Amino acid sequence: MIARVIVDVPTRATDRPFDYSIPAEMEGWVEIGSRVGVPFGGRVLQGFVIGIAPFADIDVKRLKPIAELLDHIPPLSPDLVELAQWISEKYCCPWTTALQVMIPAALKGKADSVVTLSEEALEDEAGLLLEDAEPWFQYIRQHGEVRLALLQERFPGAAAGIKAAIQRGTLLEEVSIRDRLKVRKVLTVFPPENEAAVLAELAASSSRAAKQQEAARYMLENPEPISLAALAQALSTTTGTIRGAAEKGWLSIRETEQRRDPYAGRGFKRTEPLPLTEGQQAVYDEIAETLDNEASRVFLLHGVTGSGKTEVYLQAIARCLEDERQAIVLVPEIALTPQMVERFKGRFGDAVAVMHSRLSNGERYDEWRKIREGRAEVVVGARSAVFAPFKRVGLIIIDEEHESSYKQEESPKYHARDVAVQRAKQHHAIVILGSATPSLESFAAASASRSQQESQAGASSSAKRGATLLPMPERVAGRPLPKVHLIDMRDELKGGNRSMFSRQLHEALLLRLERGEQSVLLLNRRGYSTFVMCRSCGYTAQCPHCDISLTYHQKSKVLRCHYCGHSEQAPEKCPSCESEHIRFFGTGTQRVEEELAKLFPGIRVIRMDVDTTTEKGSHEKWLTMFGDRQADVLLGTQMVAKGLDFPYVTLVGVIAADTSLHLPDFRAAEKTFQLLTQVAGRAGRHELPGEVIVQTYNPEHYAITSAQHHDYSAFVQEELKHRRFMAYPPFCRLILVTLSHEQLALLISEGEKLASTLRDLARAAGIKSSDDGDGSRFIDILGPVASPIPRMKDRYRFQCMIKYRGNVGAADLLKQAISLLSGSNGQPPVTMSVDVDPQVIL
Ligand SMILES: Nc1ncnc2c1ncn2[C@@H]1O[C@H](COP(=O)(O)OP(=O)(O)OP(=O)(O)O)[C@@H](O)[C@H]1O
Ligand SMILES: [Zn+2]
Ligand SMILES: [Zn+2]
């Protein structure tokens, strides 16, 4: 047998499987998903086995054997290997990069596994187990704990049997990873094996060694194993004393693996399913029915803020678990607060694994193993949890599906939403995309599938491709959405108020202080200081060709468009009203905090922004403090806008709604609408009614007025018009190619070559080069133009944008073009980085 191996060299030239022979002693151990060390170009490199085949593609004599097996139980399953291939094709990244992102960082070195008998096997004295006839099993019985590497050596041909025993749970696998990270071992005290003998001995022994006797008695009375350190502390003695007792045989001390549980010792109050509201019930029923049918389907759960989406998730998960299938819950990194975790741990207890970036490598590794070994059935995590190594996925939930943090910004630049849909297909699982403000892409997909359903009744196969819309338009218990007031800051300026607080917001804050209620203040800091705006009339500089804001370059005093490269001199006076109050815009949270202290002496403010939340656990600390009403105001950037559910928050203030509106990004209006709607949704979620004050220079902009009226569909209608007119997603798709090099001249000429090669290839394939607005397929190559960040780490950067619609094979064309530009080493002369469906264009 031979193994097809993807070696861990992330270049285009090596991005294909290489064949290796499987040495006899590894036969049966090497599987799809195994990590191996293989000779490659004179070195031994790490790689993943992605296929096993009877024959090699190359001459058998040239075939080299696998040098090393890095873990005995493969870290990846065949379905994940397949998913990695899909990612590498869809996102134009090397296969190895996609494979590597699926395993925890801790698992990079060689793993050493030890197996022991499970409790059940230990108790089986009659020898009734399936495995009892096996010599290797007897060997483990004799030795208690055996390294898998040793079993492999001693019992050739036993691989399948041993793996099956691990699967069944007769054997327990414990892994330690050499070099990188040690599984934490602790010395644990156990009661003596022969209790009666020890009791007799203790009774006969003199009063000498009283402390040792006390330890022995303690273990006889409390036979639960306890760590050596903890026992010493409990008995106020030294570990030496207890070791002494062990030497006498009065108790025993063994090394055991300690699993890191970041939430250990924190009692999560158990919650019971709530009786669902009518709206929740309708949605739940449809989900439950599809779950029972084991059909793969995508639902878009469009529920307003406070409509009780989480309860629907929880009950859908419960249904999924009943069927012995597992559930993955993705939440934005920023929302992975204890509040969120608590809701899931509260309902499902220890069956919940948690994965987010603030865990240490060791903690993350332990959570991953908890999933792989079937000790967890639900994972709540940030985007990479979509790769959780569950065996039977039944349900994948993506909460706040519109969040851009589901897109990974470094390679592999995957979008967790699209990966989730693909993974669900593999498992016949369902996907629930939940949001109060769905992304236009998801909403358009759901509407398209609905109109398809309506127009061709019975054509279920085409309907399945889109998403099914599940609306929840009302808050639970008939609570109203908060009233939103818009304050025109131009009027404030005219009225002589130069402060960052309007008179209305000032008064509203004062009222909350008097009443002892709480306020959330949002400073929209995206796009801080990058665009030019007139403070008198609200004018902003736009690109004449692209319908997006121009970016201000302070050094050169030039305004530039990042899509088409258009540039112009920054104006001194407002071109619209001639005012001189034209300037680039932005305020920092620190300044707001100072201002608050000045205006409201004694006010207690918690500031949450990148500066105050870098420390581990700081997020949590601030939110707990706020929840305990130790502060009057929670002031922050985007991170205060999401997912929070505090009963005493009755006021939400938005200091400047516009900063994100004029970013040079076609999603600027969408992002602004989402942010305002989300933050407004923090107010009045419980008994006390809420109020929202939004300060803006653009009170008539549809993103702001729609948010004011909680009117998602008004926003979508208007926004879709713009997107259609400018041919932006969801009416087309984008691929962004960023080229970089130290030499500017080379970069420009390669950029032009790339663009012209792409155009030639498209023409040869007979694809139209421009959109004629009829919805037919086209591919348009924009650029090259300088990137928004034109130089980074002494490298110049240029970019090409590929706009396309329909099945044009854009990723393939791009791959072809890049390989045509590549030299004999398989690489193009300048670095090319590809971002498919880019979220951040800045
Ligand atoms: N069936 C129910 N009966 C009573 N209370 C409920 C019910 N369902 C949810 N709630 C409560 O309603 C509040 C809002 O629910 P939840 O936080 O799930 O809303 P959401 O839709 O996720 O909102 P957001 O999008 O703003 O996060 C919570 O306090 C929740 O406990
Ligand atoms: Zn003006
Ligand atoms: Zn432009």
Automatic annotation (TrEMBL):
<keyword id="KW-0235">DNA replication</keyword>
<dbReference type="GO" id="GO:0006269">
    <property type="term" value="P:DNA replication, synthesis of primer"/>
</dbReference>
<feature type="compositionally biased region" description="Low complexity">
    <location>
        <begin position="445"/>
        <end position="463"/>
    </location>
</feature>
<dbReference type="InterPro" id="IPR042115">
    <property type="entry name" value="PriA_3primeBD_sf"/>
</dbReference>
<dbReference type="GO" id="GO:0005524">
    <property type="term" value="F:ATP binding"/>
</dbReference>
<dbReference type="InterPro" id="IPR001650">
    <property type="entry name" value="Helicase_C-like"/>
</dbReference>
<dbReference type="Pfam" id="PF18074">
    <property type="entry name" value="PriA_C"/>
</dbReference>
<feature type="binding site">
    <location>
        <position position="564"/>
    </location>
    <ligand>
        <name>Zn(2+) 2</name>
    </ligand>
</feature>
<protein>
    <recommendedName>
        <fullName>Replication restart protein PriA</fullName>
        <ecNumber>5.6.2.4</ecNumber>
    </recommendedName>
</protein>
<feature type="binding site">
    <location>
        <position position="577"/>
    </location>
    <ligand>
        <name>Zn(2+) 1</name>
    </ligand>
</feature>
<dbReference type="GO" id="GO:0008270">
    <property type="term" value="F:zinc ion binding"/>
</dbReference>
<feature type="binding site">
    <location>
        <position position="574"/>
    </location>
    <ligand>
        <name>Zn(2+) 1</name>
    </ligand>
</feature>
<feature type="region of interest" description="Disordered">
    <location>
        <begin position="445"/>
        <end position="474"/>
    </location>
</feature>
<keyword id="KW-0347">Helicase</keyword>
<feature type="binding site">
    <location>
        <position position="561"/>
    </location>
    <ligand>
        <name>Zn(2+) 2</name>
    </ligand>
</feature>
<keyword id="KW-0639">Primosome</keyword>
<keyword id="KW-0238">DNA-binding</keyword>
<dbReference type="InterPro" id="IPR041236">
    <property type="entry name" value="PriA_C"/>
</dbReference>
<comment type="similarity">
    <text>Belongs to the helicase family. PriA subfamily.</text>
</comment>
<dbReference type="InterPro" id="IPR041222">
    <property type="entry name" value="PriA_3primeBD"/>
</dbReference>
<keyword id="KW-0547">Nucleotide-binding</keyword>
<comment type="function">
    <text>Initiates the restart of stalled replication forks, which reloads the replicative helicase on sites other than the origin of replication. Recognizes and binds to abandoned replication forks and remodels them to uncover a helicase loading site. Promotes assembly of the primosome at these replication forks.</text>
</comment>
<feature type="binding site">
    <location>
        <position position="534"/>
    </location>
    <ligand>
        <name>Zn(2+) 1</name>
    </ligand>
</feature>
<dbReference type="GO" id="GO:1990077">
    <property type="term" value="C:primosome complex"/>
</dbReference>
<dbReference type="InterPro" id="IPR014001">
    <property type="entry name" value="Helicase_ATP-bd"/>
</dbReference>
<dbReference type="Pfam" id="PF17764">
    <property type="entry name" value="PriA_3primeBD"/>
</dbReference>
<dbReference type="GO" id="GO:0006310">
    <property type="term" value="P:DNA recombination"/>
</dbReference>
<feature type="domain" description="Helicase ATP-binding">
    <location>
        <begin position="290"/>
        <end position="456"/>
    </location>
</feature>
<feature type="binding site">
    <location>
        <position position="546"/>
    </location>
    <ligand>
        <name>Zn(2+) 2</name>
    </ligand>
</feature>
<feature type="binding site">
    <location>
        <position position="537"/>
    </location>
    <ligand>
        <name>Zn(2+) 1</name>
    </ligand>
</feature>
<keyword id="KW-0479">Metal-binding</keyword>
<feature type="binding site">
    <location>
        <position position="543"/>
    </location>
    <ligand>
        <name>Zn(2+) 2</name>
    </ligand>
</feature>
<dbReference type="InterPro" id="IPR011545">
    <property type="entry name" value="DEAD/DEAH_box_helicase_dom"/>
</dbReference>
<dbReference type="GO" id="GO:0043138">
    <property type="term" value="F:3'-5' DNA helicase activity"/>
</dbReference>
<dbReference type="Pfam" id="PF00270">
    <property type="entry name" value="DEAD"/>
</dbReference>
<dbReference type="InterPro" id="IPR005259">
    <property type="entry name" value="PriA"/>
</dbReference>
<dbReference type="GO" id="GO:0006302">
    <property type="term" value="P:double-strand break repair"/>
</dbReference>
<dbReference type="GO" id="GO:0016787">
    <property type="term" value="F:hydrolase activity"/>
</dbReference>
<keyword id="KW-0862">Zinc</keyword>
<comment type="subunit">
    <text>Component of the replication restart primosome.</text>
</comment>
<keyword id="KW-0413">Isomerase</keyword>
<keyword id="KW-0378">Hydrolase</keyword>
